[in-house]
Amino acid sequence: MRLIIADDHALFRQSLAGLLAARGHEVIAEAANGREAVAQVGRLRPDVVLMDLSMPEVDGLTATRLISADFPGVKVVILTASDDDQNLFEAIRSGAQGYLLKNLDADAFFAQLDGVARGEPAITPALARRLMRELSSPRKESAHDPDALTARELEVLQCLVSGVTSNRNLAERLGVSENTIKFHVRNILDKLHLSNRAQVVAFALKNRLIDAGH
Question: From the CB of residue 200, how many other CB atoms can be counted at a distance below 10 Å?
Answer without folding.
Answer: 21
